[in-house]
Specification:
This protein is of the alpha+beta class and 428 residues long. It folds into 2 domains: 203 residues, D-Maltodextrin-Binding Protein, domain 2, CATH 3.40.190; 199 residues, D-Maltodextrin-Binding Protein, domain 2. Helix content is 42%, strand content 13%. Strands 1, 2, 3, 4, 5, 6, 7 and 8 form an 8-stranded mixed β-sheet that branches. Helix 3 links the parallel strand 1 and strand 2. The protein is globular. The two termini are 21 Å apart.
């Protein structure tokens, strides 16, 4: 999942091994001249550093104490451990979308932001599907939406030309119109270009397809649907069939080998949420500047991968102040600032209409108008898919390993049974 804007780069760095600092949930109000201390826990790169200083300038009675972990996994593990212990959590905590279902299952441990937050912060601030994904089944609002990861498709223009495929961002759209057309183009590509796969990883493709379904791994009664929803198996068969025909590079996403795959031209296309552009530029390097392109097309119409929320645990000693701080960080103007600082694509309706955002371009991707492109892709995301408790764990700890086992020689049926059994264990 992770995703995670340019924070995905941080996940592969040495600093990623660092754990969260364990602190009390609120600071001593008598410290620093009686100021209220607000702690905030994030991971990777949210683009908030300048904003912390600005908030303190606007609110002289507030001291912001940030705690940042390089990698999302340790961040969330520490957060849920502290949540269970009933102490040690910060006043504001960032929760990545893949871990939000688990947080929603523990909604009693968080404040309802619609009750304690500023009165002028309403649902109309966000895209509908982003706001809805921050609510539990009873409508309690656990998190203010930060960034999102609307999906487009990135590809290597030079490799497409080598295969005799169209390479202009407008001309390639037909290749990425549906999953059938995508896999058909993959067959054409690998028939013409030796030693280059069509995509990086079966799991990356399968997870994108899974997130497009009306009903995911769970229905709204939290029943596991992996055996009752035939579309999940159909997606599995499509992906594993394509891999069997040689379309997958068989790389583990965000591993060292996957990172090297960009420079070694191991694959020609990449599922591309907004934050992935930074990852590609970082890993592919200057030698491939202009060879990577991005188009506002995605098989099946679109989707979202990544993005986070800011929540206020009931442990906070300053819940209203914390909610006001989280609300300010997610205002349109601040979301634009975070986008400029770290590539965190806004989830706010007003921010998505901002000329400042819409004018954004990316020279590495040939001057692509990425602000306008991803704003349009964000509008293509429909109703939020319900994510039951354990949804993210199934994606990360069941589907991904099962698909890797198929890429390493297991039969698709064996991999499917591995997925089903692992999903049942997670859901039980």
């Amino acid at each position: 999942m992770r995703h995670q804007l340019r924070r995905a780069i941080a996940a592969t760095s040495a600093v990623a091994a660092a754990g969260l600092v364990t602190v009390a949930c609120g600071g001593d109000d008598s410290a620093d001249g009686g100021k209220t201390e607000l702690t905030i826990a994030t991971f990777g790169e949210f683009g908030y550093e300048e904003l912390y200083a600005e908030y303190e300038r606007l609110n002289p009675d507030i001291d912001i104490v940030p705690h940042t972990t390089g990698q999302g996994g340790p961040h969330h593990q520490a957060m849920f451990t502290k949540l269970g212990a009933g102490s040690g959590l910060e006043d504001v905590v960032a929760i990545e979308e893949g871990h939000m279902p688990e947080a929603l299952g523990k909604s009693s441990r968080f404040h309802d932001l619609s009750e304690i937050g500023p009165s002028d912060v309403g649902p109309d601030r966000w895209l509908d599907w982003k706001y809805e994904s921050g609510q539990d089944k009873d409508g309690k609002l656990l998190g203010y939406g930060t960034d999102i990861g609307p999906l487009a498709m990135c590809y290597r223009k030079d490799l497409f030309e080598q295969a005799g495929l169209p390479s202009d961002p407008e001309d390639v759209k037909a290749l990425f119109e549906t999953w059938d057309s995508y896999f058909e183009a993959g067959d054409e590509f690998i028939a013409e270009v030796d030693d280059v796969a069509w995509f990086d990883s079966s799991a990356q493709i399968f997870n994108a397809m899974q997130n497009q379904l009306d009903v995911g791994y769970f229905d709204r009664q939290d029943n596991l649907t992996i055996e009752s929803n035939p579309t999940i198996r159909q997606n599995w068969d499509e992906v594993t069939d394509a891999a069997a025909r040689g379309q997958s590079a068989g790389l583990v996403a965000f591993s060292n080998e996957w990172n090297s795959g960009f420079t070694q031209s191991a694959f020609a296309t990449k599922t591309c949420p907004a934050w992935m552009l930074g990852v590609i530029e970082e890993q592919a390097g200057e030698d491939l500047a202009g060879e990577w392109a991005v188009t506002d097309a995605f098989p099946g119409g679109g989707g979202n991968w990544g993005g986070s929320y800011l929540a206020v645990p009931t442990q906070s000693e300053h819940p209203e102040e914390a909610a006001a701080f989280a609300a300010w960080l997610t205002e349109p103007e601040q979301q634009i600032t975070a986008f400029k600082a770290a590539g965190a694509f806004p989830s706010q309706v007003e921010a998505l209409e901002s000329p400042d955002l819409l004018a954004a371009t990316n020279e590495y991707f040939g001057g692509a108008e990425i602000g306008e492109l991803f704003a349009a892709q964000a509008q293509k995301v429909g109703e939020a898919q319900y994510k039951g408790p354990g949804d993210g764990k199934i994606q990360e700890n069941a589907a991904t390993p099962a698909l890797q086992s198929v890429e390493q020689g297991a039969s698709p049926d064996e991999g499917w049974q591995q997925l089903v059994q692992s999903a049942k264990q997670i859901a039980s």
